User: Which sequence fits this backbone?
């Protein structure tokens, strides 16, 4: 099977692995990109999991003020080296994220941060909705799971579609950055104020 | 049950649903605002809304980034009119406050926000200090009160000495501003991030 050199390059950027390893992994998985990543990780060649364990204590604190000082965002993104934190790629990721938070108003950073009570509350509403719509009981659980995924993609920053390219999630964007700069990047925390809102 | 038209209006603004739907939902939930929202969602009329609650407050949200993006501050200050929020006096007060927070690192907005446990902890330390210094037992309470005042002036933004004029507190500064512009001004909330700190 012929593997496009573009795909090999993408896999290298995504995983940080060598050219020959990427080519071989793609050949073994018949060109399936995601499976190739899994394979590289299984072989212990891809650094993704190891990267996640490394500490990321450098980085940037950035802010963004929107709509004539009616919305404000404060954000901390960590990386591993001062060198990366000063790079244009990192800076522009941080700026994009500030605008994302201002515009898309996430309530949580990641899905693990959503309180159980909020999830239960959503599930109850979805379940009643589905019944009211006349969905068969057998289908309800699947509907709940699907709509909870949608809920996460609305309220969790990491799961939100990127406002400047809706085909990507913030997680995708983060993955691209990590692969490109070869360093672990952690979106640490954010705060969003809207003038006069109840906190 | 009589539903106040103000409540119906609030529900309309919060959910974007029609007047009659809102009125009906409030009637069915005996006027419970949150339950009425849930009911509208279950009926499939309201979308999952994260719209901020309605507000009458004006003011500014301002940010300040310090030390090459290693410290960041987000601040909300409220006033009564849009006219005041656009005035130079108000804007410069808000900017000064941002710098104050970055430099003087307050932990709380005002003394009412300090948890009882923190105060008890301070008092115990101060009391032991005073005894070790050989202060007479009769003086201890007065010493505690004095040093707790000092503690407030260190950790509460409103009680801190103003970094640009240590003879004034932030409370003094706020009083001067209020007197000058003839409008109530409330320092609503702030967040301060320092790169890599434990939150």
Assistant:
């Amino acid at each position: 099977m012929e593997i496009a050199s573009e795909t090999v390059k993408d896999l290298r950027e995504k995983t940080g692995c060598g050219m020959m390893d990427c080519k071989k992994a793609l050949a073994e998985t018949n060109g399936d990109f995601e499976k190739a990543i899994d394979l590289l990780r299984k072989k212990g060649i891809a650094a993704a999991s190891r990267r996640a364990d490394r500490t990321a204590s450098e980085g940037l604190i950035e802010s963004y003020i929107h709509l004539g000082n009616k919305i404000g965002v404060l954000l901390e993104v960590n990386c591993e080296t001062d060198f990366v934190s000063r790079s244009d790629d990192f800076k522009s990721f941080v700026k994009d994220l500030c605008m994302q938070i201002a515009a898309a108003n996430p309530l949580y950073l990641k899905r693990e941060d959503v309180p159980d009570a909020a999830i239960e509350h959503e599930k109850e509403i979805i379940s009643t909705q589905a019944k009211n719509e006349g969905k068969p009981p057998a289908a309800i659980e699947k509907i709940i799971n699907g709509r909870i995924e949608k809920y996460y993609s609305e309220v969790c920053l990491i799961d939100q579609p990127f406002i400047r390219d809706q085909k990507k999630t913030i997680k995708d964007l983060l993955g691209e950055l990590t692969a490109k700069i070869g360093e672990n990047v952690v979106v640490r925390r954010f705060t969003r104020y809207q003038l006069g809102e109840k906190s």
User: Anything to note?
Assistant: Chain A is about 55% helix and 15% strand. The two ends of chain A are 57 Å apart (CA to CA). Residues 137-155 of chain A form the longest helix (19 residues).
